[in-house]
Amino acid sequence: MKLTYKTAGTCSTAIEVNVDNGIVTDVRFAGGCNGNLQGICSLVKGMKVEEVLARLEGIRCGGRPTSCPDQLCKALRQALG
Could you state, in order of their start, the residue ranges of all structural domains in the chain? Predict the structure, then answer.
């Protein structure tokens, strides 16, 4: 399943995520900190969605209540339905 998720509260503006049989197959962020987000995309590719959620959900960026990794988790939860 391919999903485009509009982020809130982060420098990135959107996340495109592909999930196939509970596995993250591709992630792309629009905007944000390019190097860090490329790293996150590379690290989560091939991971089970549940593992990504366990590791990244709830991470905050500075004083913000969310972060790009946390927004990725929101996108993944939406993709799971």
Answer: 2-80
